[in-house]
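Prompt: May I have another protein with tokenized structure?
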Amino acid sequence: MRTLIILSLTMLWQCMAAQNNPTIQQVAFMAGNWVGELEGGHSQEVWAAPVGTSMIGMWKFHQGGEDIIYELLLLEETPTGVNLLLKHFRRGLQGLEEKNEALTFALQKHRPGYAEFQTADGRTTLIYQQPGKKSLHATLVSRNGETTEVSEFMYRRQKGK
């Protein structure tokens, strides 16, 4: 009887831990080649489908006939949940963050077609929503003291991709 109770409690704990620890599958809806317009330019975000416990992605902003900025993106499972890491680059892959540093966002909330990430200091939030199979919306909210800046990225799935 005691063994059965211990086994039952262990299984219950594992189920609860699985619910509280999101996996890469909760953000798999982001996979695809997404394009949109931003500030008179062209924005493109590409996410590969999950393989193992991660997804790799990139973002590019093109304006006035030239590439302005790039991001290398990584979604990966950790023991505490899913993190989104990103690094910014200018033309020629000139990094903007220090060599061994990346901006890190932890997955805070998720449901089908929705993922909300936040930096550890709470100043920056990145929300992905998929209102339909052919669209992806990303909202970047940056807080600095009393100032809040919101950037909206409205993507559509690249045709034929």
